Amino acid sequence: MATSNNFDLSRCSLNTATIKHATLEEAAMAAAAAGYGAVGLWRDRVQEVGAEKAGRIVRAAGLEVSSLCRGGFFTALDAGRARVAVDDNRRAIDEAAAVGAGELILVVGGLPANPEPGMGASPDAGRPERDLGAARERVSLRLAELVPYARERGVRLVLEPMHPIFCADRGVVSTLGQALDIAAPFAATEVGVVVDTYHVWWDPQLAASIARAGAEGRLAAFQVCDWVLPLKQDTLNSRGYVGDGYIDFATITGWVRDAGYTGAVETEIFNTDIWARPFTEVVEHVAADYAKYVLPYLD
Predict the structure, then answer these.
(1) Beta-carbon contacts of residue 53 (< 8 Å; ≥ 6 apart)
(2) Per residue in 61-83, pLDDT tens?
(3) For residues 38 and 67, is the Cβ–Cβ distance under 8 A?
(4) How do 239-240 and 12-15 pair as beta strands?
(5) Alpha-helical runs (H) found in the chain
(6) Secondary structure of 60-114 in HEC code, one letter for each residue
(7) Rounded to an integer, what distance in angstroms lies between the CA atom of residue 115 and that of residue 84?
(8) DSSP for residue 296
(9) Least crowded by CB within 10 Å, which of 15, 75, 108, 279?
(10) How far apart are CA 60 and CA 56, in angstroms?
């Protein structure tokens, strides 16, 4: 499978978040036309049409589903909110199975002191809401509750470490090593990890952690985008095209390759400027960047 430029895009996956305003059918058709081998799905696009139909749309385009985003947000102290999160994760697992995604990406959640991503700390939040260690323990407990349900449906739960700037409101797991430690009590077929370059490129232990993930059979997904400056006021939407920033994709891709990873490479970009561009233009841009900055280092 290749584009008119004869790039091999069989392992190239378009995450639907990269072209946020396209429908699932538009995203699948654009990816297929450009020669991609897969798409990574976000639940909003799946839920718009229903999981069964979403799977049919992707298959009709001749594509694979590389992952489903996202489950998680396990850190609530309140029992009611915790139950809501577990129930939503069960729905996410069902959706993953229905669309044919073997991997459900998990954003584990921030501190309970921050009730919703992007909000300020609750003014009356005390020490328990700020206890990082306890929050990570709750991630482990709720993961254990979900693993049997996911295993029965053939879905692996995939922990995503997030850059420390998101520790308060989105992800109390900041390094790949931490994610692997949380995954350790479970079988590699049950809980894996994702290497997302935006979140882990800075980690001085990244090479060793990627090698460990490969040796343990937990390297479940590889997502790419770049760290560009200046960061936007909304840091969540500051991601850039591969090659536009500071990340050493040749080195990190080589580590992932040497760890034995042979799956899809998803480009997942959150950026309002990129979302405003025609999505077919973005799809071609992503393909060219993948061919230049990632593909040469996969083999």
Answers:
(1) none
(2) 999 999 999 999 999 999 999 99
(3) no
(4) unpaired
(5) 24-34, 43-49, 51-60, 79-99, 132-152, 176-183, 197-200, 206-215, 249-258, 272-275, 279-293
(6) HCCCEEEEEEEEECCCCCCHHHHHHHHHHHHHHHHHHHHHCCCEEEEECECCCCC
(7) 14
(8) G
(9) 279
(10) 6
